[in-house]
Design goal:
The structure holds two protein chains of two kinds.
Chain A: H1 8-33, H2 37-40, H3 55-62, H4 66-97, H5 103-112, H6 118-131, H7 138-162, H8 166-174, H9 179-190, H10 192-208, H11 211-216, H12 225-230, H13 240-260, H14 262-270
Helix pairs in contact in A: 1-13, 3-13, 4-5, 4-7, 4-10, 5-7, 7-10, 8-9, 10-14
Chain B: H1 3-8, H2 12-41, E1 44-45, E2 55-56, H3 60-67, H4 69-100, H5 108-119, H6 122-132, H7 139-146, H8 159-186, H9 191-199, H10 204-232, H11 236-242, H12 253-263, H13 267-294
Antiparallel strand pairs in B: 1-2
Helix pairs in contact in B: 4-8, 4-10, 4-12, 5-8, 6-8, 6-11, 8-10, 8-11, 10-13, 12-13
The chains are: A mainly alpha, B mainly alpha.
């Protein structure tokens, strides 16, 4: 596409459309969180805060269990990401490196499992966790989250493992490395970008999940961020000052994560990072 | 050979089995077993609230589901959400991807603007947009007032408007996922094709129709399949915006399953509804699965 978009100002307009579309909800919630409660319920509404107040942030950290939700979300997301990387990494190595005859079939089986609607898993997983007395524990969420991200992570890591020349590994083994040594010293460092991509994707999946967290960990002290914040809202009242401040606190960690790893995450989409 | 030696230097086959085992065990425990259990449960009267154990009832649950007006209403809502938001997100996503694919000097602001909505939890998008559509202090009614409307609309309290607000939110939230997949596809199209078309005197529109769309088709199909599966399971956004209300005007299938199973603890009946949803999404995925299966 050339000529009419060659002009710098039109290109700037295109960039502005994309940027505004992406950032306006987060920006609006940030502005909301900085307004006093009195300002939020006055009409006509203000766009920029008249006086910037941090009262809402003080409130969420002192009178609301936000820290607890942050810890829960972080523990669940980190644990399921680590577990997923190990399990998917092993599977990906076997598929990419070991010359199996049915490797495409094995990969298809794993990827196909991402097509099962998690909602249909909800009922039996709930029933099983309940009979094992695992409701309201981290385990109840870590295991399903690991499985939800397993297909994507296996796919991404398989394609990265395949891109490492097999000769490098063979050379190391000739030089006296064991297979594990070659794996640890040669393959893992070279596949690191793929591991980061898979890790960020799986972390974001777990951080965002709502339905299972709502159903399996309903007790207030075990809620993750999305569930905890959604429950600030009563049947008919929305305590918006608190919700907006809590949302900002909850969005920042993931926003920082994807800002740091944006190239890795974007490359995940070429490898089929598939969760709509 | 001693066991320790075999561990230190295993053969390819033994190693492959060892490495694949954890993945398949997890999939068996969290995907295959639950699906079996789901089918099994759907033939029982199984309520976790009462003391009585499960009673075999044959296909009674299925008969009851087919006569259940709530089920059909929820199915209709889910179908409508899918039919509106999937094409909507595809068009919006295609637009965003085309804009983001222009040759900017600095790529990160545009890239981050696509990644942020994608990484934002659905539940947060629902909460934020519920605030936008707030009838008293929401920015939507305020803008409507500035453009001469009365700005009094009770968005989330009127069935049709609540539905529209939910669909709009879903389209905003999911178009960035579409855009990221399509952008990855756009970047694989070589510029030389456009240059050649230029030389042959093809217009921009012709280039878009004859080069961009055909070459982008594989990405479009992938994005559509995954978005459709996810749309059939819509839960987070209507739950956080309206809790399915007013009444049950925005209740989706996933919300009905959640309510039946988790709130009423009627596992047998909930499982039966879930089986219907499973079959529904199989219709969407089977053509796609056959394709990746045959390319193996």
């Amino acid at each position: 596409m050339k000529t009419w978009l060659e002009g710098g100002s039109l290109r700037l307009l295109a960039a502005a459309i994309v940027v505004v579309n992406g950032f306006f909800p987060a920006l609006w919630i940030l502005l909301t969180s900085l307004k006093s409660e009195a300002e939020l319920v006055s009409k006509p509404i203000t766009y920029l805060p008249r006086d910037v107040v941090l009262q809402n942030y003080v409130e969420v950290f002192t009178h609301q269990p936000l820290i607890r939700y942050l810890i829960n979300s972080f523990v669940v997301a980190a644990a399921s990401t680590l577990l997923c990387l190990v399990v998917a990494g092993c599977a990906a190595y076997a598929i990419a490196r070991l010359g199996l005859r049915r490797r495409q079939l094995i990969l298809t089986c794993i990827v196909a499992s991402s097509m099962f609607p998690p909602v249909t898993l909800l009922v039996p997983v709930f029933e099983t966790m309940r009979s094992l007395n695992l409701l309201n524990t981290y385990t109840a969420l870590v295991l399903p989250y690991t499985v939800l991200s397993l297909p994507v992570c296996t796919l991404v890591m398989t394609s990265h493992f395949q891109s490492i020349p097999k000769d490098l590994e063979n050379a190391a083994m000739i030089d006296g490395c064991t297979r594990w040594g070659a794996l640890w010293r040669i393959v893992v460092p070279l596949a690191a970008p793929g591991v980061f991509t898979a890790g960020v994707l799986s972390f974001v999946n777990a951080w965002d999940e709502f339905l299972l967290a709502l159903s399996l960990n309903a007790v207030a002290s075990m809620r993750t961020l999305p569930v905890g914040i959604a429950f600030y809202q009563g049947e008919f009242s929305f305590p918006w000052p608190v919700i907006s401040a809590a949302l900002v606190v909850a969005i920042v960690p993931v926003a920082v994560l994807i800002a740091i790893f944006q190239e890795r995450v974007t490359s995940g989409f070429t490898h089929g990072a598939l969760r709509g | 050979m001693r066991l320790a030696d075999r561990f230190r230097d295993p053969g390819d086959r033994a190693l492959a089995i060892l490495l694949l085992a954890p993945a398949f065990l997890l999939l068996a425990a969290i995907v295959v077993y639950p699906i079996m259990r789901l089918l099994w449960n759907s033939f029982f009267d199984l309520r976790l609230s009462g003391g009585a154990g499960p009673t075999f009832v044959g296909v009674e649950n299925y008969v009851l589901v087919l006569q259940d007006r709530d089920f059909w209403k929820a199915t209709a809502h889910t179908a409508l959400i899918t039919l509106v938001t999937v094409p909507g997100a595809l068009l919006a996503g295609l637009g965003l991807a085309m804009l983001a694919n222009l040759p900017f000097k600095r790529r990160w602001p545009v890239r981050l603007a696509l990644l942020l909505p994608w990484a934002l939890p659905m539940a947060f998008a629902g909460l934020i947009f519920a605030w936008f559509f707030h009838s008293e202090y929401g920015v939507v009614n305020d803008v409507a007032r500035r453009f001469g409307g009365d700005g009094q609309r009770m968005w989330l309290l009127q069935p049709n408007w609540a539905f529209a607000a939910i669909c709009l939110t879903i389209i905003w939230k999911t178009s960035s996922f579409m855009a990221l997949i399509l952008l990855a596809g756009l970047q694989t199209i070589p510029n030389s094709l456009y240059d050649a078309a230029e030389v042959d005197g093809a217009s921009k529109w012709q280039q878009f129709r004859r080069i961009t769309i055909p070459l982008l088709m594989p990405s479009i199909v992938v994005a559509l399949v995954f978005r459709t599966i996810a749309a059939l399971q819509t839960f987070d956004i209507p739950y956080t915006m309206t809790r399915g209300g007013p009444g049950d005007a925005t209740q989706t299938l996933a919300m009905l399953i959640h309510k039946t199973t988790i709130e009423y603890l009627d596992v047998g009946y909930g499982s039966t509804i879930a089986v219907f949803m499973f079959v529904l999404s199989l219709f969407v995925t089977s053509p796609y699965l056959r394709r990746i299966g045959s390319s193996a």
